């Protein structure tokens, strides 16, 4: 990700409860949302998506539409 003007600022999921096995997200880069595995940290593969798609994904989780 060295070609990014803004570096992602990672934060753990609010649902993690401090656990080590959760996801981290970064939404501070304009036009992008990033998701990675927290236990792998910097070594984690990163999923990059649009903020609109990420918001739709979160809505689907909240509405229990992914079971």
From TrEMBL:
Give positions of region: Disordered: 1-20
Enumerate the Pfam families for this protein. Answer: DUF397
Protein name listed in UniProt:
DUF397 domain-containing protein
Please list the residue ranges annotated as the DUF397 domain.
9-62
**Segments of skewed composition (Polar residues):** 1-19
Lineage per the UniProt record: Bacteria, Bacillati, Actinomycetota, Actinomycetes, Pseudonocardiales
- Which organism does this sequence originate in? Saccharopolyspora ipomoeae
InterPro entries according to UniProt: DUF397 (IPR007278)
């Amino acid at each position: 990700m060295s070609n990014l003007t803004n570096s992602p600022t990672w934060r753990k999921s609010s649902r993690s409860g401090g656990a080590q096995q959760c996801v981290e997200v970064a939404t501070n880069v304009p036009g992008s949302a990033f998701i990675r595995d927290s236990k792998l940290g910097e070594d984690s593969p990163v999923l990059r998506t649009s903020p609109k798609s990420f918001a739709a994904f979160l809505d689907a989780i909240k509405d229990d539409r992914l079971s």
